[in-house]
Amino acid sequence: RLVYNNSQGELTMDERIHRVAALANISAYDPEGTRKYIDGAPHIKHASLRALYANLLVQVYDFAKEYTAVPRVLDLGAGEGSVTLPFLELGATVTAVDISSSQLNLLQSKCEHFSDRLEVRCEDVADTLKRKDSNYDIIVANSFLHHIPDYLSMIREAITLLTPWGQFFSFQDPLRYDSVGKFTMIFSTLAYFSWRVFKGDVVGGFKRRLRRMRGIYLEDSIHDNAEYHVTRNGVDQDAICRLFEDCGFDCNIVRYFSTQSRLFQPIGSALVLKNTFAVIARRRTSMR
Predict the structure, then answer these.
(1) pLDDT one-digit tens code per residue, 200-225
(2) By the 8 A CB rule, do 4 and 16 touch?
(3) The overall pTM is greater than 0.70
């Protein structure tokens, strides 16, 4: 149910768009969607990406440990726990936030041995960021920014919750499409369809692709609203980097190749193609 009024009056257009996106994610990640999630999540599915992911995650954790004995992590869009569980196992305390109750149920099952260091919130990330009641050493947005209509505003809001030595860590977002080159885009699209053709609703997916190629996007489409990167030019890694630098952070963009296809993943990696990125942003030393 969408609520178009708040205590100050009607929601703004941006707020309405955010709420629609949030509801789309609920629909996209019902219990059946949760079971399918791992097959469609390359960073969980492929060993090479899991290795890269783990390497970056440990780097982030180890840096936080230089400043605090038990790092506090805010996991935005926590999903089934692919970030939450590793941080808990390393020794952090984690606040896991997601709007999908089925995903969080799976997360809690995975993390049941760490319940004393885990807080789970089933709510809109925007509501979490508005609380301003806690500070965190690490804020994570794993495979999440491309679901957010205005990810720059979300990042700007999130980093206000970081400690003076805080870090922002994201993983598995598509690079801005016009920055990767035609061959990479063609190869990535071919890899995607080689996987997608076996997942059902092929005709529906083909029709949606043709519609979007004509620049037509539907406000009431679960598919359009849950995957904002397909309705715009990917995710702008350069704009994200500029935002962090303007806010006093050192920002490292890590580019790599990622696809759902088990056949095309090693080929794309061998060709040193890059269509996906991670972010590690840390406050500058002079500001700590």
Answers:
(1) 666 666 676 677 666 666 666 655 55
(2) yes
(3) yes
